[in-house]
Amino acid sequence: MLNLLFLVFLSPLLGFLILSLGRGRISQNLAGVIGVGSIGISALVTLGCGIQLLTHPSADGAYTQLLWQWMQVGSFNPRFALRLDGLSLTMCGVITGVGFLIHLFASWYMRGDEGFTRFFSYMNLFVASMLFLVLGDNLLFLYFGWEGVGLCSYLLIGFWYQDPANGSAARKAFIVTRVGDTFMAIGLFLLFRELGTLDIQQAMATAPGHFEVGSKTVTAIAFLLLGGAVGKSAQLPLQTWLPDAMAGPTPVSALIHAATMVTAGVYLIARTRVLFELAPLALHWVGIVGAATLLLAGFTALVQTDIKRILAYSTMSQIGYMFLALGAGAWQAAIFHLMTHAFFKALLFLSAGAVILACHHEQDIFKMGGLRKKLPLPFWSFIVGGSALCAVPYLTAGFYSKDEILWQAFAGGHIDLFLAGLFGAFLTSIYTFRLIFTVFFGKEHSAAHSGHGISYTLPLAVLLLLSTFVGGMIHPPLSLVLPAGPGEGGGEMEHKIALLSGTVAILGIALAGLLFLGDRRFVKWLNNSALGEPLGRFFGAAFGFDWLYDKLFVRPFLWFVRVNASDYLDRGIMAAAGSLQSLNGELTKTQTGRIRWYAASVAAGAVLVIAVAALT
Amino acid sequence: MTPVPLEHSLLLAGTLFSLGLLGILVRRNILFVLMSIEVMMNAAALAFVSAGSRWAQPDGQIMFILILTLAAAEASVGLALLLQLHRRFKTLDTDAASEMKG
Fold it and tell me: Does residue A269 form part of some domain?
C-alpha cells in the first residue's frame, strides 16, 4: 500500500490536467465527478497509507519513496522523494479529508457557475501543490509546492475576474505573500551555503553539529524562514492580504484561506524545528508574532460586518495561536490545533457559504437575522463550529487543542504568551457569538431559501461531527516527529488552566449574548460615544495597516514608477520605437493602390538594376 | 536576301517595348493596359527571334512559342480581371480599384 504513495498527489494532478484540457468539452456533471473524485481517490490512498504506516511502523516511523533524481549540479542533487511520517500524514489527512468534503460542498455551491470546470481544475491543482508541499522530502520541493499553492490562491481569489476588485484582491494576496516568499528563498540559499544540502532529514541531522546555539547565521536563517511563514500564514506584519482574499468563492476561503494553505507556515516551522531550536531568539519571536496577531485579529473581528471577513480575522487569530504554541515549544499542540482548526473553520466557512447563498449573496451580517428557523443545518453548524472556535469546554474539538496550547505556554513559563492567549480566547468568544446572535437570532430581515442534496448536507454533517469532542479524540501520530511539550502529563494545574480557559470562553459568550441579543441598546450607545466611535473605526480598519502600507510602500512605489517612466534609458528605447513608427508611416504612403504606380516602380527598378549591371 | 541586321531588329523590339511600357504607365483603361502588355511581350518575343536567327539557333523560336502561350494565358486572366472590375466598380478605370492602399 505504501508504494502507492505517489498516487496521493498524482490523482489531483491528473484531475487538473483532464479538467483544464477538457474545458468546454466536458459537461458540468462530469467535471464535478472528476474534480471531487480525484480528491476522493487521494483521500482513500492517504487513509490506506496511514493505516499501513501506523500499524507496521518502521524504526523511525517514516516511509520515504524515492521517485527520481531531479537534477545534478555539482554537489547539489535534489532527489524527488516523498516522505510520509506522522507530521506529513496528519497534514495529508487534513488536506485530502477536509479537502474532499469541501470539494463535495463546492460541487453544490458552484453549480451553474459558468466557470465550474475552471474552478475545479484550479482546486485540484491547489490540492496537488499542497500535497507536494507537505510530502516533499526536500526543501526545494517544499518551496515548489509553496509557490504552487500561492499561484492557485491567486487564481482562485480572482476567480470571478470580471469584477476588478476581485482582481486587485488577488494581486494583493500574491504580492504580499511574495514578500514573505523572498525572505524564505534567501533563507534556503543561506541554509544551502551552510549545510550543502536541502534534503530535510539530512539538513536537520547535520544542523546541530554545524551551528552553535544562537549563532548569527542560524538565527538569520530561522528569521528568514519565519518571514516566509508569516507571509503565507497571514501573521503580523504581512497579514493584510487575508481579509481581502475573501473575494474568492466561499469553498476557496474554506479550503485555502482557512483549512490548508494558510497553515503551511505552521507546517514549515514545525518541519524545520531543529533550526528554530538552535535559534531561541527566532523561536521567541514566533511566539510574539503569534500573540500579537491573535490579539490584533481579535479586536478587528469585533467590529467587522462582513460574515466572511469576521471568519477571516478569526482564522488569522487561530493561526496566531498555532504560532504562539510553536513559540512556546508546544510543537504537538500546534499541529493538533492546526487539525481541529481545519475541521471547525472549514465547517464555519461552508455554512457561511450556505447562508450567503440562501440570502442571495448578502454578506453583511446586519442585513441578515432570524435565520435560525429557515436554515437549521447552517444554524447548528454555526453553533457547533462557533463553540469549537471559542473552545467551549469538553464538548468541542477546539477546546482540547486550544487548552493544550494555553497549558503548555503556562507550563513552559511563557506567562506573557499565556495571558495573551487567554485574553484572545475571550475576544474570540465575543466576536464569534456576536456573529451567530446577529445572523440567526432577532428579527428576520430577508427571505432565505435553504439548500438541499447530499453534496450539501454530507460535508456539513461530517465536519459538524468532527468539530465536536469526536475531533478532539483524534490524536495526530506526532510523537516520533516532534518532541513533547513542556507540560506533558500536567496533573492538577492543567485542570485549573482548563477550568480557567473554559470559564473565559463561556463568559465571552455570555457577554456577547448580553450585548447582541435583544435590541442592542448598549452597543449602539457605545458605537456613538466619544471614545467608542473612533476606537471602532480604528479596529474596523484593522489597526490601520492597510493605510500605513499604502503610505509607506504603495504610494512611494507608484511615485517612483511614474518618475521612472520617462528617464533617459526609457526615452532612448521609446525614440527607437518612434522612429520605426514614422518610417512605417512614410513607407505606407507608397502603397497607393494604383497599378500604374507599381508598374512604374517595377520598370524604374529594372532600369536601375540593368544600368548597374551594365556599367560595372 | 540579306538578313536584317541584329541591331535593327533589336531597335525595333526596344521601341515596341518602350511604347508598351508607356501605354501601361499612362493609360487608365484596363483594356488598353492589357493591350500594352501584349505589345511588350511581343517586343520581347521579337528580340528572341532575331537573336535566334543571328546565331542560327532554334532556341529563339522556341522561346517565341513559349511567350505566345504565356500571352494567351495572360490574356484570359487579364480579361477575367477586366470583367470583375467592370462588375464591381462599373468602370474600367484601374485607379478605381485602389482600396488596399496604405
Answer: no
